[in-house]
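As a warm-up, study this chain.
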Amino acid sequence: MNFIKNVTAAALIVVGSFQFSFAQDSKYQWKENTEGGYTYKYVTNDPSGARFYTLKNGLTVILSPNKKKPRIQTYIATKAGSKTDPSDHTGLAHYLEHMLFKGTDKFGSLDWAKEKPLLDQIDALYAQYNETTDEAKRKEIYKEIDRMSGEASKYAIPNEYDKMMAAMGAEGTNAFTSFEQTVYVEDIPSNAVDKYLAVQAERFRNPILRLFHTELEAVYEEKNRGLDEDSRKSIETMFAALFPNNNYGKQTTIGTIEHLRNPSLKAIREYYTTYYVPNNMGVIMSGDFDANTVIKKIDQAFAYMKPKAVPAYVYGKETEIKAPIVKEVLGPKPENVMIGFRFPGAATKDAQMLELVGNILTNGSAGLIDLDLVKSQKLLSAYAFPYILKDYSMLILQGNPTQGQSLDEVRSLLLAELAKLRNGDFSDDLIQSIVNNEKKNDISQNEEYSSRANNLMDNFTSELDWSTTISYPDVISKITKQDIVNFAKKYLNDDNYVIVYKRKGEDKSIVKVEKPPITPITLNKDVSPFVKQVNALAETPIAPLWVNYTTDIKKGNVGPAELLSVQNKDNSLFRMYYHYDMGKWNNKLLPVAAGYLEYLGTKDKSTEEFSKQFYKLASSFNVSTANEETYITLDGLNENFEASVALLENLLKNCEVDEEALTAYKAKLKKSRANAKENKSAIMAGLRSYAQYGAQNPFNNVLSDQELDKLTAKQLVDILHQMVNYKHRVLYYGPKSVAQLQTSLKPLHIVPAQFTAMPAAASFTAVNTTQNQVLFANYDMKQAEVFWFRNSEKYNVAEAPTVSLFNNYFGGGMGSVVFQTIRESKALAYSTYAYFGLPSKKENRSIVGAYVGTQADKIKEAVVGMNELLNVLPESENALSNAKLSLAKSLASERITQDGIIFSYLAAKKLGNTTDIRKNVYEQAPKLTFTNLKAFHTKEMSKKPYVYCIVGNESSLKESELAQYGTFKKLTLEEIFGY
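Now compare it with the structure written out below.
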């Protein structure tokens, strides 16, 4: 579930909503048209060109053609989620989502006639299990469920859905469930529409709940992962306090442990038949297709669906909050404060106003919180975001304390910003600046077919008026400061909120979902007749299009700086980069200086004024420093290009020392560094770097505490002033031609006649992985994470086709060998993968990586399972054929465009390649056999030494057991982080 879900709201009047002038813009009007025998609605001046159809059975179809790439983003959405879960079966919508990948009576089964009686017996056993309270009897029943599931699995074909989608070149195969929606996601080649619709129509016709107990175990793992996430616990606590009478707060999407332990297949089917009906579903597609052709195909595919009345969700009205409701969450991650206010639902004027208020508080540049708390470094980080849902909405404020700061101080600082809203203490032109940025965002959103589809899908499931959604920038331009003040006074006061204090400490209330005994199921490698029928459907081949580094990039110079340009002929957006082959390895102060720039001004302009001016221009800049590269990035509207560049250049060249800002910045850095030690992802990244390079590695190549204390503001400012003098190249994607760009940049980006030599770079050499080793870091968590690592040889371009096909076959997706075995067959992990990773530079070495996130009590089984795969490559001709088809079709329909062309060229240069390597992969991979893959696996993985990077709770993981995998070394956080 995606917690931070910001849905643009519609402006419809409802009882109790705040009243102010909010007229609909007349240029966005609903119209109706008929083509090809189908009537559709559309909105005038809609940049997405979306057509809204309602078929005879009530199915909504939304089509938004976009011809830029031969691919289509698709969503099949049901307007039902965890909010409509039965109160005695919470989590049901979510695990039904999982089961919609298991097939029907036509696919996913080798012999449905023989499988069905076994599944019926499993159904009866689950009903018995659900009604039994005696734990001893429950264990006996589950033992029988496990045995019968093993028998039934002999006829099942795991992940046949995923294999079909991969074979047609689909990408991003997934699904998600939230409060009010369950959505099934695919990104397909444009020539796969017939195959896609055949599979989807069948998928929803008669879903079979096969392989249920192993999939439920994956949900258990997902639940346990959530128990280790403090942010999830905080937001669930917030919802429970804000919505005691609505299922937003009464139950969670993933469900309670008690309900997960007592699933009912009968309840799942009842839910499916109730909500998965055409008048409650939508098919949303954006991409390369003809709408008249596609709507006819969709109608034919889903005509079998019969409409049915959907029960309305009825909830109790929430009572007014008259005094702060205080909650507390404990966990190992850094402390923070979350404050939530309740508002009316999505289809109200208030929700749209809330979007604007959210931007006034936080927009990344010039919001009240941005300037007053982040830019001034009063907090480590802080933001506000509107969370829009159908029944109610929220405004969530979150703040993270800086060094030595109490959570009550954080609360006071956040609430003070709301007082400024109520007092009208914000810039008069801020609303217009927001409008400018919303217009820029709209252009950006409509560039990509995937963004279009996502916006249309959200709008559908939230039941909003699309004409109001797209008119948002024009509508808010009419809002006045007094409107904002009145709104804030009504809703955002000092007593009507919920506050969640996330404190450090052991959460003793956590009870994980216990691991049931599961016997690995059979992994059948044959295919069903339905798959053969789908694969046999005709398709028009898509011709691949490779990047031509000679003709696709226009080159020039800005002084001695190389200029690489791709012209934007579609819209008015530009992106420009000053790119340096220099990074943290050249100077450990460089990333510190890049961060310091955010808090600096010039003699004539404060740092706050710079932020306001950039935002007013609808421009943004960023300085990012990696180990060996630095980018200074600027993006915005072409009409403001010169003004934006002038503003950036002024800041870079004329920024002045600010000692007060440096003092606060050092405190912020120290707090951030301390917080990193409390983040399990950061700890694992440190272990992996240690495994790759040894004790002295890029991850801990940072300033010591003493070096940080001693650095001066002048040192950092001198680095920033010097940047223009170091060798760099200018990268540009935008409407200007090379000549126009050179003319614009000549007086603005003034570079010396000859560049200054860069500081010499530190050198880090990958170590030979000569023996099995365990690098362990202790962390307070219910799960355990294991990452297998070994260094291989230097880059070999000839291996690229083999590597691409091998990764597809072995560990790269839900149909891969690793996923099939570790998750589908053995139910050992929610997340697992493995890969052979090519380096980014020809001088560097490739790596082997594998990952399992599992329960601490399953780590032994998980390690054994992954080691078996690393040592012996399972053979499946069907899987290999699928991997080849998937790779070939993905490459044929892939289009590298915009500034991606430039970055592809630079990446190829680092590897010594002069042409697009994808062409070689496309031509050579189909010729490879299993013998080739097995030889590669034997050479790179089988019976090789590995470094096991393990993060987990030492109270649950015994050193003596971990030491069986290799020489054991428990690393301190100082060893990992370097400070």
